[in-house]
Amino acid sequence: MSETELRQAIVRQGALLYERRLAHGTAGNLSVRLEDGAILVTPTNSSLGFLEPERISKVSPEGAHIAGDPPSKEAFFHLAVYAARPTARAIVHLHSTHSVAISCLCHADPSNVLPPLTAYHVMKVGRLPLVSYFRPGDRRLAAAVGEAARDHHAMLLANHGPIIAGASLEAAVQIMEELEETAKLFFLIGDRPASPLSCEAVEELAAAFPS
């Protein structure tokens, strides 16, 4: 896709996420990686529901602002994910309600904070690590996110929200939707006895649908 088409895709997917109430206010950001390593990223203090293609920020691989409005203050951790995952072409970061709620809980195993309730969660999201809390804009978050991204295309920032990397923006949005639906299921089930997929079932899915 051309840069113009990618800008339009960001506007389209941002509006979809906003309409589905996965994005609110000016929270969250989207990005795509261009062939030269630069990224297009949503501007700071922008609503994903009301983006304009020509105002989307363009940032160099080193983090320099090239074009468009000033970039999201979280563009630095998008760059960290791309550096750690050469195959990633797009990133979705949201503050979606149920996923953020998961990020606020205490977890016995921070390496995987949602049980494998459905095959589709295992296939699309996989293991979901919790990255330690850093205040918004803290550059130390880049190192923590980059480390997690080496082995995971989805992660949760503690007390903050999810980061999803995908082979395309549409793919990343679809993974994000699956994560949010699984988080909803987790809270709907609550303390009731549940039957997550067995280790054998998870291994079978991993073999049949490698990420």
Automatic annotation (TrEMBL):
It is an enzyme of class 4 (lyase). GO terms for cellular component: cytosol. It comes from the Bacteria. GO terms for biological process: pentose catabolic process. It catalyses: 3-dehydro-4-O-phospho-L-erythronate + H(+) = dihydroxyacetone phosphate + CO2; 3-dehydro-4-O-phospho-D-erythronate + H(+) = dihydroxyacetone phosphate + CO2. Its cofactor is Zn(2+). Residues 8-187 form the Class II aldolase/adducin N-terminal domain. Keywords: Carbohydrate metabolism, Lyase, Metal-binding, Zinc. InterPro entries: Aldolase_class_II_sugar_metab, Aldolase_II/adducin_N, Aldolase_II/adducin_N_sf, OtnC. SMART domains: Aldolase_II. Its EC number is 4.1.1.104. One of its GO terms (molecular function) is aldehyde-lyase activity. PANTHER family: 3-OXO-TETRONATE 4-PHOSPHATE DECARBOXYLASE-RELATED, FUCULOSE PHOSPHATE ALDOLASE. Belongs to the aldolase class II family. AraD/FucA subfamily. Catalyzes the decarboxylation of 3-oxo-tetronate 4-phosphate to dihydroxyacetone phosphate (DHAP) and CO(2). This is 3-oxo-tetronate 4-phosphate decarboxylase. It comes from Aureimonas glaciei.
